[in-house]
TrEMBL record:
Gene3D superfamilies: Collagenase (Catalytic Domain). Residues 128-286 form the DUF3152 domain. It comes from Brachybacterium paraconglomeratum. InterPro entries: DUF3152, MetalloPept_cat_dom_sf. Residues 45-59, 84-97 have a biased composition (Low complexity). This is DUF3152 domain-containing protein. Signal peptide: none annotated.
Amino acid sequence: MTEPTPHRPVLRLTRRGRLVCSGLVLLVVIALVLLLVSLVRGAGTPPEQQQASTAAESAAPEHDGTPADSDEGGTTSAEDDAPAAEPTGEGTPGEEATPTDDAAERTPEAESPEAGGDVEMVRSGTVGAGTWTVAAAGDAPTEGVLRPYAVRVEDGIDVDAEEAAEEIAAVLADERGWQGPADVVFHRVADPAEAEFTISIGSPPTVDELCLPAKTGGVWSCRIGPEVALNSDRWLHATPTYDDLAEYRAYMINHEVGHFLGHGHASCPAEGAPAPVMLQQSIDLQGCTPNAWPAGEEG
């Protein structure tokens, strides 16, 4: 006689159990979809880009400046609208910065020796008011190719705007200056908006800001695009390479305006020769003798 098959208990899920199982299945499906999307994206990204992306997360990029020109050592360059900027003997060498010339010329060219290197510069600690006094217009020339410019002086730096403007005008009009070689006539206007370039005399912190991206370090001057920024410490105290303050100011002006006119830096041609005005004389004469003028004593 056959024994009856024992009754097997049937597993029945409660409503709660069914909900839990459905939730687990849904989570697994979502995880698989996310994994698939991640793999597809990774496969489409070049290895170089993946590496760059990782590097960008671990290190912040440094500020890239446009070249500037400066005769005092500026560190950057900026193109004239980027003309080159040159520190007028005041900055950290960059693209073409010449101390006491144009630290940045918005045409990449800025150079200014950091902290002046071994050369001891006067650092007054002056901080200007951040406001400006614009000098009055000069007499308009009757002939020649006019190059209008403006002069402004930061308030609170012990430099008189009108006196500085007259000194600058005399330098620009000097027969040893750029008017002959460049075949132009400079005319001072009262509105910077009407000028091709502006010569600004400001305190060290202000000039540092004007010269960016050139690094003028509170010491140098520069030229950035249409802005010729002259450090007030250099205007009032020059650098150790010059004994004559008036001659040094003439050099600052001619060097930076030279950058505006498109001239780059130069080197000393021979031991004992007059230094080219586009040499960064605020930093080092390279064996030459100081010379503030485009046209030397011998023409």
